[in-house]
C-alpha cells in the first residue's frame, strides 16, 4: 500500500467538468492526429486511381479493427486495470501490469499478422474485391499486417500511460509522428530522386515507421524518472491474476469492436453489389465515422481513468456523474459533425477523389447516416466509460444489437429490391439502437450488477449501495 499520487488524487477529487476537459484536450489531439495519419495515407493513395482507393476501402475496416481492438478494447482493459489498481493503492501490481500488457500486445499482434497474411485474399474477396482493386488490397494489407506487432505495442504502451491519467505524453508522441508522416508517406508512395516509388505499399511502410518510432518513444518515457509507473523485467513473475484483470475487460470489449467493424465490413460487401465506385464512395464517406472514434476516445480515455479510479476507491456516484457528463459532451460534438457532413458532403469526399460513382455513393451515405452520428458518439463514450467500471456485458449486447440491425436490415433491403440508400438507412437505424441501448443499460445499473430502470441517479445509487 502506498500514498495516493497527485495525478490519482486529481481523478478522485477535482471538479468533473474541468477535469474531463483538461484531460480530454491532449487526448483528443492525439486521437485526431492518429486518425489523420490514416487520412494522409488515403489522400495520397487516392492519387493512384479509383482501384487503389477501392483497395484502401477494403482493407481499412480490418486496419481499424486492429486499431480499435488494440487501443480501444484491449487498450481499455489495460488502462482500466491500471486505473483501478492505482485507485486501490496497489503500486507494485500497477508496475507489473506494464509487462503483462506488453506480452498481450505481442500475442495479439502476431495473431493479426498470421490471420491476414494467410486469409487476406479470401476475406477481401468476400467483401466485394475483384480484379485490380483486390490485387492492390493484398499488397497494402500484406505490408501493414506484417508489422501488426508495432501497432499493438504502441497502443498498449499509450494505454498504460492513460491509465495513470497521463494524456499529454501519448499526445506529444503522436503529433510528432504525424508531422514526420506527412512528407514520409508521399515520399515512399511516389518516390523522389534516388528513392523509388513503392505505390500503395509505400503508404503502409510509412505507417509502420510511424508506429515503430512512437513505440520507442513511449518505452523511453516509461523507463525515465518522470514516469509514475516503474516497469521492469528482472524479477517480475508473470501472474494469471494480472492477465485476467486486463483480459476480462479487453476481450469483452473486443467483441464490441469486432461488431462495430463487422457492421462496416458488411455494409462494404453490400455496397459491392453496385460496383467499385460504390465501394470507394461508401469506404471514403465512412472514414468520417471512423474519425469520430478517435475524437470520442479523446473524451473516453479520461472518463475511463476517472471511472476506473473512482470505482477502485469506492466512489460510485462520482463515476456515474462523470459518465453522463462525458456522454452529453460527445453527443453534442458528434451530432454537430454529422449534421455538417450531411449538409456539405462533397467537400469531404472531394479530398479523396472525383470519380462520379464514388461521389454519388458517398453523398448518399453522409446525407442518410450523418444526422444520426450523435447516437454513435453517445454509445462510444459510454462504452469507454464502462470499460473503467470493469463491466461490459450489457454495453456489448447493445453493440451486437447494432450489428444485427445494420447487417440484417441492409441484407433485407437488397433482397426486397432496395437501393444503396436502404443499406445506409439500416446503418443509421443501427446507430440509434446502439447509442440509446448503452445509455439505457448504464442508467439501469449495469455497472453494478443490478440491472433495472431507476428514473434518477439518486434512485440508482440507493439500489447499488451495499446493504
TrEMBL record:
<feature type="transmembrane region" description="Helical">
    <location>
        <begin position="432"/>
        <end position="453"/>
    </location>
</feature>
<feature type="transmembrane region" description="Helical">
    <location>
        <begin position="52"/>
        <end position="76"/>
    </location>
</feature>
<feature type="transmembrane region" description="Helical">
    <location>
        <begin position="20"/>
        <end position="40"/>
    </location>
</feature>
<keyword id="KW-1003">Cell membrane</keyword>
<keyword id="KW-1133">Transmembrane helix</keyword>
<feature type="transmembrane region" description="Helical">
    <location>
        <begin position="198"/>
        <end position="222"/>
    </location>
</feature>
<dbReference type="InterPro" id="IPR002528">
    <property type="entry name" value="MATE_fam"/>
</dbReference>
<dbReference type="InterPro" id="IPR048279">
    <property type="entry name" value="MdtK-like"/>
</dbReference>
<keyword id="KW-0472">Membrane</keyword>
<feature type="transmembrane region" description="Helical">
    <location>
        <begin position="291"/>
        <end position="311"/>
    </location>
</feature>
<feature type="transmembrane region" description="Helical">
    <location>
        <begin position="97"/>
        <end position="120"/>
    </location>
</feature>
<feature type="transmembrane region" description="Helical">
    <location>
        <begin position="365"/>
        <end position="385"/>
    </location>
</feature>
<feature type="transmembrane region" description="Helical">
    <location>
        <begin position="140"/>
        <end position="161"/>
    </location>
</feature>
<feature type="transmembrane region" description="Helical">
    <location>
        <begin position="173"/>
        <end position="192"/>
    </location>
</feature>
<feature type="transmembrane region" description="Helical">
    <location>
        <begin position="323"/>
        <end position="345"/>
    </location>
</feature>
<keyword id="KW-0812">Transmembrane</keyword>
<keyword id="KW-0813">Transport</keyword>
<dbReference type="Pfam" id="PF01554">
    <property type="entry name" value="MatE"/>
</dbReference>
<feature type="transmembrane region" description="Helical">
    <location>
        <begin position="392"/>
        <end position="412"/>
    </location>
</feature>
<dbReference type="InterPro" id="IPR052031">
    <property type="entry name" value="Membrane_Transporter-Flippase"/>
</dbReference>
<protein>
    <submittedName>
        <fullName>MATE family efflux transporter</fullName>
    </submittedName>
</protein>
<feature type="transmembrane region" description="Helical">
    <location>
        <begin position="246"/>
        <end position="271"/>
    </location>
</feature>
Amino acid at each position: 500500500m502506498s500514498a495516493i499520487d497527485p495525478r490519482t488524487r486529481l481523478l478522485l477529487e477535482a471538479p468533473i467538468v474541468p477535469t474531463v476537459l483538461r484531460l480530454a484536450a491532449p487526448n483528443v489531439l492525439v486521437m485526431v492526429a492518429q486518425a489523420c495519419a490514416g487520412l494522409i495515407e488515403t489522400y495520397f493513395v487516392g492519387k493512384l486511381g479509383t482501384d487503389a482507393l477501392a483497395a484502401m476501402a477494403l482493407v481499412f475496416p480490418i486496419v481499424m479493427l486492429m486499431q480499435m481492438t488494440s487501443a480501444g478494447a484491449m487498450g481499455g482493459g489495460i488502462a482500466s486495470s491500471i486505473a483501478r489498481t492505482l485507485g486501490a493503492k496497489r503500486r507494485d501490481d500497477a508496475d507489473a501490469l506494464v509487462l503483462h500488457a506488453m506480452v498481450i500486445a505481442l500475442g495479439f499482434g502476431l495473431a493479426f499478422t498470421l490471420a491476414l497474411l494467410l486469409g487476406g485474399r479470401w476475406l477481401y474477396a468476400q467483401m466485394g474485391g475483384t480484379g485490380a482493386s483486390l490485387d492492390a488490397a493484398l499488397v497494402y494489407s500484406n505490408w501493414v499486417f506484417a508489422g501488426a506487432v508495432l501497432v499493438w505495442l504502441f497502443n498498449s504502451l499509450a494505454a498504460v500511460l492513460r491509465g495513470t491519467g497521463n494524456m499529454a505524453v501519448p499526445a506529444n508522441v503522436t503529433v510528432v509522428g504525424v508531422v514526420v508522416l506527412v512528407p514520409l508517406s508521399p515520399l515512399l508512395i511516389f518516390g523522389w530522386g534516388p528513392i523509388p516509388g513503392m505505390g500503395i505499399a509505400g503508404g503502409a511502410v510509412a505507417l509502420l515507421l510511424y508506429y515503430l518510432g512512437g513505440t520507442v518513444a513511449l518505452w523511453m518515457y516509461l523507463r525515465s524518472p518522470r514516469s509514475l509507473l516503474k516497469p521492469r523485467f528482472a524479477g517480475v513473475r508473470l501472474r494469471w491474476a494480472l492477465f485476467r484483470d486486463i483480459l476480462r475487460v479487453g476481450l469483452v470489449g473486443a467483441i464490441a469492436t469486432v461488431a462495430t467493424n463487422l457492421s462496416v465490413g458488411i455494409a462494404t460487401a453490400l455496397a459491392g453489389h453496385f460496383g467499385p465506385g460504390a465501394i470507394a464512395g461508401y469506404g471514403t464517406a465512412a472514414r468520417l465515422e471512423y474519425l469520430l472514434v478517435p475524437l470520442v476516445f479523446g473524451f473516453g480515455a479520461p472518463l475511463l481513468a476517472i471511472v476506473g479510479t473512482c470505482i477502485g476507491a469506492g466512489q460510485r456516484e462520482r463515476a456515474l456523474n462523470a459518465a453522463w457528463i462525458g456522454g452529453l459532451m460527445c453527443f453534442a460534438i458528434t451530432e454537430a459533425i454529422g449534421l455538417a457532413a450531411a449538409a456539405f458532403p462533397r467537400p469531404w469526399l472531394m479530398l479523396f477523389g472525383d470519380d462520379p460513382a464514388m461521389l454519388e455513393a458517398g453523398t448518399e451515405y453522409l446525407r442518410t447516416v450523418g444526422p444520426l452520428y450523435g447516437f454513435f458518439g453517445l454509445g462510444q463514450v459510454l462504452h469507454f466509460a464502462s470499460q473503467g467500471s470493469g463491466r461490459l456485458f450489457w454495453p456489448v449486447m447493445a453493440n451486437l444489437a447494432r450489428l444485427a440491425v445494420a447487417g440484417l436490415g441492409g441484407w433485407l433491403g437488397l433482397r426486397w429490391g432496395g437501393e444503396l440508400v436502404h443499406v445506409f438507412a439500416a446503418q443509421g437505424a443501427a446507430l440509434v439502437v446502439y447509442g440509446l441501448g448503452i445509455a439505457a443499460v448504464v442508467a439501469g445499473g449495469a455497472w453494478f450488477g443490478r440491472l433495472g430502470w431507476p428514473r434518477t441517479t439518486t434512485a440508482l445509487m440507493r439500489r447499488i449501495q451495499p446493504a
